[in-house]
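Worked example 2:
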Amino acid sequence: MRFLITLLMALCPAALAAAGLEVPVIYLKQQEQQPPTLSNLDPQPADLGETGARLGLADNRTTGSFLGHSYSLETVAVPTGGDFAAAARAALSRSALLILDAPKPALLAAAALPEAEEALLFNTASPDIGLRSGDCRRNLLHTLPSDLMRSDALMQFALTKRWTGLALISGSHPQDQAFAAALRQSAAKFGLEIAVEQTWDYGADMRRNAAQEVPLLSQGLGRHDLLLVADELQDFARYLPYNTWLPRPVAGSEGLVPTAWAPVVEQWGAAQLQSRFQDLAGRKMLARDYAAWAAVRSIGEAVTRTGSADAGVLRQYLLSDAFELAGFKGRPLSYRSWNGQLRQPIPLATPRALAAQAPLPGFLHQHSELDTLGLDEPESRCGAFQ
């Protein structure tokens, strides 16, 4: 114990100078009505995201207890159809550090509040590419990977495997269409082409017939090496593997899935994180849980290193080259200074194993290989961070 305290004194003199520091964090969640799907086998956990934040709080308190830093986490749920901006305004009266679990319109409404101008907000739920580009906000950072980061990871894998013949089946929901657009953009980025596409536009009342429809739908795709699927609601894609007209691997929203986190990630100390989350939640850690954990831990790491709970000081440090977060993914995580996105490897996971983790070998970058995933600085139209 004495050695640990001595080590912390050597590493964090500023933090020790700020003993007695109070760090209140508010987790603000917009509840949404989920559209009907063909299967109800995998309902969304009621505590999705929130428990990741709670685990991050526990981790922050471990270090904070030695430094005299006191962390607290308040959870606020906005009911379906409720006024998220009003809830954010009320939350900002109590803390300038908000973890936001909400769709894009709600995030923009919160970030636009006068009270939020000097606050520090974290997006842990929306993968929207525009939020990292022309719709970015200087007070809004992103710990959830964008759709483009995930699709870039998948295209790196396809290129490595030399699976150059690509086909795509996408759903009609806006989230499906957004991920399908990211897949097209990533394919073009890496010199690949999605030669043929189909849309799944059957209703949610055909559960018994879905498996019979898949071979007929996929027959029209012609010859291909890899079948991509954009089904972010987890509606129909579960019926694709082993049921297509041609025997082909499936990837995207089903099969080989690029994601922020998966229960099969166990290297780099991840098994320990998985175990602690399981003990806390009684279930597996999912991508939005990881994003919320990373947001709370980012705050804790920045407070530890700066000795401050001021949102402006923390934001400046988070966007600097000095910040690193140990994220159990094999390399340090950091924020892109041009759009606030957390750089991170993307696991490519099957239901029972980690197949690979992007960026894959051979995909190089002049600054960080992690910037081969998602919008690089020349590609982003974000001007708010300049």
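The radius of gyration is 21 Å. The mean pLDDT is 93.
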